[in-house]
Design a protein that fits this description.
This is RNA-binding protein. It contains 2 helices and 5 strands, in the order βββββαα. With about 100 residues, the protein is of the alpha+beta class. A 5-stranded antiparallel β-sheet has the order 4-3-2-1-5, with helices on both faces.
C-alpha cells in the first residue's frame, strides 16, 4: 500500500467515464481500492470505489476533512465541496502530481 494514499488526499481520476474529475479520498477499501467523494456527483451517501491504478495522487491534503475523518467526527458534502474548491483554487491553479506518481 502506498503511504501517500490517505483520507483527505486530493486525487484525479485517470480512467473511466469520470476521467479528469477531482476527488478527495474518503477511505481505503482494501489494498488497491479507495472510496472517493467530491460532494457533487459523488456524495458521502454514494462514494465512488476506484482502483488506485486509475487515480493520480496529488501532494495536497484537505487537513480539516482528514482530521474530522480520523477523529470520527461527522463530515458532510459541503465540507468536501469547500475543501476541494480551496485545494483547486489555492495558490497554484493547476496542482502538479507528486514526482513518480501514477
Amino acid at each position: 500500500m502506498n503511504t501517500r494514499i490517505a483520507p483527505g488526499r486530493l486525487v484525479v481520476s485517470t480512467a473511466g467515464r469520470d476521467s479528469g474529475k477531482f476527488y478527495l479520498i474518503l477511505d481505503l477499501a482494501g489494498d488497491n481500492m479507495v472510496w472517493l467523494v467530491n460532494g457533487r456527483d459523488r456524495k458521502l451517501a454514494a462514494p465512488k470505489k476506484k482502483n488506485t491504478r486509475h487515480i493520480k495522487v496529488y501532494p495536497r491534503l484537505a487537513a480539516e476533512v482528514a482530521a474530522k475523518i480520523a477523529s470520527g467526527q461527522r463530515v458532510n458534502d459541503q465540507d468536501i465541496r469547500k475543501a476541494l474548491t480551496h485545494l483547486l483554487n489555492g495558490p497554484e491553479q493547476n496542482p502538479d502530481p507528486e514526482p513518480g506518481g501514477r
